[in-house]
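Hi support team,

I submitted a single chain yesterday and got back a structure, but I'm not sure I'm reading the token output correctly. Could someone confirm the output below corresponds to the sequence I sent? I've pasted both exactly as they appear in my results page.

Thanks,
R.
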Amino acid sequence: MPDPEELARQEIDALLGPCGWTVQDKNAVNLSASRGVAVWELSFKTGEPDYTLFVDGKAIGTIEAKPAGHSLTGVEEQSEKYVRGVPFGLPAWRSPLPFSYESTGTETCFISRLDPVPRSRNVFAFHRPEILLAWHENHALPQSVESIGDYANRKGNFLSRIQHMPPLIDDVWPPKPQAIMNLEQSLRDNRPRSLVQMATGSGKTLLAIVLSYRLIKFAGAKRILFLVDRGNLGKQTLGEFQQYVSPYNNYKFHEEYIIQRLTSNTLDTSARVCIATIQRLYSMLRGQELDEEADERSVQGLESLFKEAPPIEYNPAFPIDTFDIIITDECHRSIYNLWRQVLEYFDAHLIGLTATPSKQTFGFFKQNLVMEYNHEKAVADGVNVNYESTASRPKSPPRAPRSTRGSISTSGTA
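Hi R., thanks for writing in. Yes, this is the structure output for that exact sequence:
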């Protein structure tokens, strides 16, 4: 009967295949068998990593296997020793090797030593070989820029490019400028999750639009996911993204970048922003169609439809690096129980926007509250109107939506 570590390797082998890796024994190595090859127990100067990962014939990382239930905390120190012990003559993209994983087959941690602030993070599965190679090839020292247009031509990955962003165009309408600057700082610090608490009506959606635009234009974010509670809110959000006018070049958002509202299981790979409900994402990962009625229900009303839904498994059609950033609107409604696994499937930075966070919300976002802007503060700033001042007034007819201006000094709310 296999021992616990051998069982873990069997689980890891089964996961490596769908992620694009061919597993080989060190006594029968053929590095041209596929673009990504994982070789068991090659001898390094500092020991034998359980797997050495090769892309296009050159070593790029390692995997250290541990039995199920074994804590992965501290195992990255063992990986650090291995990646620095690349033997003479072994073809490698660089030494020390830039990437390493620690895995039990059911839990996996990953670290990129190319990040400005390297940290170990949990990932749902392994990255595809071409992604690791792209990260290696895009790695570069920060470059100085002389104009706004130069930012788009910089080399470097997302985390290195975000270290040097142009200043936010100043604005007198709180709290968006401070919230955006705080979020960008949290990303520069490589914090995996960030939470913004803003009063209802104070402009959470516009904040997300401005942040998304800056991260795509100046930090090279590949794709951003904006999660809404119901399908009809997705239509509204799409309209607000489309109306946004850049203060840098006067183009509308959709004139520069493709925005997709997901209404089927097909992801437009050229889209830079995707808008969807979390139940839509769940169905896509499960490879199942979602009827329109379920897409229009609030997450809180879906328990009867999904109460016995099976857990998510790796779907090769949607690699874990599909999104760089996931923004959840009113995140307190949608990130627990069944829905939490949707967010944790993707290797993305999570940003939560909510007016009423709970203890669960703070816990999920690792207590990283980057901005707090409550109703009282919004009233004091003239952003919102006091509840008491409107309680006795007759209701006014609905107003037509205002355009979302490029400058965040617009007086509309999102």
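A quick pointer for reading it: The first strand starts at residue 21 and ends at 24. Let us know if anything else looks off.

Best,
Support desk
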